[in-house]
Amino acid sequence: MKIKLITIITLMITSLGVSQNPIFTSVFTADPSPHVWPNDPNTLWVYTSHDEPGSNNHYGMTGYHAFSTTDLVNWTDHGRILHLENVAWAESHAWAMDATYYRGQYYLVYCMKEAGIGLFRTGVARSDTPEGPFTDLGYVKGVEFGQDPAIFIDDDGTPYLYWGHDRKCFAAELNKDLMSIKLETYIELTPQLTHVFEGPWVHKKDEKYYLTYPGLTPRRWPEKMFYAVADKPLGPYKFKGVFIDDFEGQSGTNHGGTVTYKGKDIMFYHSAWLSGGLSETRSAMADYLEYDTQGNILPIVPTKTGLGNAKRTKTTLKLEAENGFAAGGKLYNVIVDTWIKGYSGKGYVTNFDNPYDHVSMLAQVAKPAKYRFKVRYASPDGESNHDILINSHKYSAFKFPQSDTFREIDFGIVDLKAGDNLIRVFKKDWKPSKGELAIDYIKLEQVFEDEK
Ligand code: FUB
Predict the structure, then answer these.
(1) CA-closest residue to ligand 1 atom 2
(2) CATH architecture of 319-451
(3) pLDDT tens track for 76-127
(4) Which of 48, 50, 84, 95 to probe ligand 1 with, by most ligand atoms within 8 A of CB?
(5) How many CB atoms lie within 10 A of CB 156?
(6) pLDDT tens across 115-131, in order?
(7) How far is ligand 1, taken at its centre, from the CA of residue 105, in Å?
(8) 98 pocket-lining for ligand 1 (C-beta < 6 Å)
(9) CATH top class, domain 2-312
(10) Where are the domains of the chain?
(11) Phi, psi at 9, each rounded to 5°
């Protein structure tokens, strides 16, 4: 009955065309971590973990995504930014994460189970761009059972780490390399956080520290979101109460964080709305967060209109060719170059010299759907001919007209399947091209039923 109701709600939302929740409908996302980086107040970033379509459990979670927007309606999914495969010390459970900007670089702080012993560790990965891909640096020393880490940098630049699972929550100041905690600052916050289960997140407002967390009232799932307030980052915290109660179509877990964007506070969390009520196949949600005059958080009741722009959110997957290898694809006999100027990201892929030379990029989506496929390229020496394979389907004889500079070309609508899709741009095997193709990025734009 519950599943039926969710399906009806989802259909109504889609047909009204105004849905802002779930915020991303192209891919399953959980544990959202929202941020505005100090050097770019116009862009909102959301980092998420990723649920595999069809799995409906957390055990097979393997990687993370980054999303960005400048208008809360049009979102870019920057694809997979870190995967279990890229973390030598880990074996499974790419669960909740957080991100931070610290001393000029971007960090992802995440949890995975350590290979061999199966203990949750808090990993740290770094990138010089907010969209990654991120490179693992190892796990934080001094943290055991490091599930659900959240990092908070105070106004004076001091970094703090919070983590917790299974009805416990801990915190400590981090050393400046973010790779170990200051043992003398380590504190268990559990007794201060009534009902705490996991997923702590700290934000500061009006000189107060707010610790929000998913919790369970005695022996009762699903999780609700609670909060506590302190005068210092490591407490003592005063328990305040629940601010996201049970709601229709929620998942067993809840988890999220808050951000101030363009003067408004927004709470990101997750539900099971996109999967039609499959409890462990989740999707990120966003609603405004408000306080009363005493600084108490007002209850949030999840709404389909979400951030209320009267327009449905639309996500475009943008995959930088030069990141193909780190983000689940491959560079086969091609190289990354920077000679032709005007590329986006860190470069482009070129030198498709021989038949079968190719670049592949990974597109992860929630459901079988149609996407508009665009490629940004240059081909200074003349037209170049290439095959494009989406999974095993060959969209052959793509012509890239001569272009000295990078430009986007629209190749029309393509089909993606639920889960992992490999998009491969091949050197054509039968007809030599005059031009030397340079691929900057590919884009896959969501196409809604009423837009076809
Ligand atoms: O997403 C996997 C796990 O579910 C997270 O680590 C928990 O907080 C819960 O959301």
Answers:
(1) 95
(2) Sandwich (2.60)
(3) 999 999 999 999 999 999 999 999 999 999 999 999 999 999 999 999 999 9
(4) 95
(5) 5
(6) 999 999 999 999 999 99
(7) 26
(8) no
(9) mainly beta
(10) 2-312, 319-451
(11) -60, -45
